[in-house]
Amino acid sequence: xxxxxxxxxxxxxxxxxxxxxxxxxxxxxxxxxxxxxxxxxxxxxx
Length: 46
Prior knowledge:
This protein is 54% helix and 0% strand. It is an all-alpha fold. The model has no long low-confidence stretch (mean pLDDT 89). Residues 11-46 form the HTH asnC-type domain.
């Protein structure tokens, strides 16, 4: 089984935008985060 190394994966613009929102308000609903970054709620949840 391949070892998952988070350090070897780079963050895309969506990941960075989601992280910025969550860092500001970690109680924000997934639906609101999805609206802010123009993704589906399912994509944000992953």
